[in-house]
Specification:
AUGMIN subunit 1, coiled coil, 3 helices, HAUS1, 2 domains, microtubule, cytoskeleton, mainly alpha
């Protein structure tokens, strides 16, 4: 009886080992398949110019910052547009327009600088 149990146990162990061997071969081939796929995806990302600095989180943060800056510059742009129908005193009107244009250009430059610095900052 003990001998029969021992033989049954050995048979189960052999069957289990054979099953594991089969699964191991399959997992090994899957591992190489996945490694190849990852390599192909990385190559594709490199081809299209992807860098970690332009991942989704950074782009969303930059978009929010851009909206905030646009919201801040909108009143200046609206004021600048309102000066296009100024009264006949051309000297003062021209001076005011130039001042507003300078402020608007400075705000746009600031917006561009911030966006550029966010895109070029490593580690985001």
């Amino acid at each position: 009886m003990l001998e029969k149990l021992k033989n049954d146990l050995e048979k189960q162990q052999m069957d289990q080992m054979a099953d594991w061997q089969t699964k191991l071969v399959m997992m090994d081939s899957k591992e190489w398949q996945y490694i190849l796929q990852v390599s192909n995806y990385k190559a594709m990302l490199n081809r299209v110019g992807y860098t970690p600095e332009i991942n989704h989180g950074v782009l969303m943060e930059t978009a929010e910052h851009k909206k905030d800056l646009e919201r801040k510059t909108k009143p200046i742009a609206d004021t600048l547009r309102s000066y296009q129908d100024l009264p006949p005193d051309k000297a003062l009107a021209a001076l005011a327009i130039e001042d507003k244009k300078r402020k608007y250009a400075a705000a746009e430059k600031y917006l561009e600088d911030v966006l550029q610095s966010v895109l070029t900052t490593p580690g985001l």
